[in-house]
From TrEMBL:
InterPro entries: AdipoR/HlyIII-related. Belongs to the ADIPOR family. Keywords: Membrane, Metal-binding, Transmembrane, Transmembrane helix, Zinc. GO terms for cellular component: plasma membrane. Its main location: membrane. It comes from Clunio marinus. This is CLUMA_CG005290, isoform A. The chain crosses the membrane at residues 158-177, 189-209, 229-247, 254-273, 285-306, 318-337, 357-373.
Amino acid sequence: MSSKFNRPSTSSMDEHFSSLEDSEIFLRKRYRDHSPDDSLEAGELSDALSDDEDVPGCPLPSTPEDNELLEAEMTEVLKAGVLSDEIDLGALAHNAAEQAEVFVRKVWEASWKVVHFKHLPKWLQDNDYLHKGHRPPLQSFGACFKSIFRLHTETGNIWTHLLGCIMFIGAAIYFLIRPSWEVNWEEKMIFSAFFLGAILCLGFSFAFHTVSCHSEVIGKLFSKLDYCGIAMLIMGSFVPWLYYGFYCHYRHKIIYLSVVTVLGFFSIVTSLWDKFSTPQLRPVRAGVFMAFGLSGVIPAFHYVYMEGWFNDISRASLGWLVLMGLLYILGAMFYALRIPERWFPGKFDLWGQSHQIFHILVIVAALVHFHGISEMAMNRVSLGECDVRHASIVL
Ligand SMILES: [Zn+2]
């Protein structure tokens, strides 16, 4: 059909024609007015129009009949939907309310501002020497983890132990994939105890400082994990030292390892006690872990008594052990006494606060210990296997 006889499709046309007859009259008129010379005859036009009417399929959507048809169809579909429970209006309303809530929460979470210590809820008030820059409660894990990239009182604590944790994971992988002629499986097992302790301690600490502002329940749960992590690091540090220090003294080795396990278990149980994490018990916490760590003095003196202090191997093993002990004690003192913010309240809110110093000293102490036990392991290799006669006397 010629393009001249295409059906009118604008909305203005819709308004003018209320029926097919009207549109036929219009087309006939238009044909007479504008196409007198057109070769198409009136009869052909009638044929064309009747052809159009006979064409099967959807009527063009711009005609008034189409709108009515569509409306009728939509009503039928909705009716059927409601009747057959396919469209649950109650659920739709509930979903809309939920989506609005999620939206409002996301907007708030993205736009939270740090607050002053006195505006924190009681359960988040830990160190009153840190005045400004505290995170408000963030009731979603997503928001807590996003806060890693914002500046507040916990940013330094989070990153020190996150980076420390990644460093020890890397060191553990490097050590464990050494070929067996370089490091045998038994040594790998012994060192794994230390790596596991260090990774768990730093990992739990990172997690605690990240989600501590989530809610009171989550904060308490993760603070317990944080303390358990410290107990595991101390236990894990003892294992290689006792293993190499008492390499040929099997009975002592077993006794000391058992005592360390019992003390570690006791520290973990104490950590799980609800009141243990309260600010009032901060010195008690420092005391428990210091006592556990210092219990290493007993096997160390025993070692000196057996091997003597004045030889290179003893000095290497004990020198690093003493340095590690001093670093931990120093860290625990910073932690318990809250130095330097105690002397300059509000001046170390974001950087340089006692907890960050404590975190860094823990990492340095763990690295010192790793170096110490690596030296002990190398010395052991240079000494060769145990003297059976000597070992049997000790047993
Ligand atoms: Zn911490």
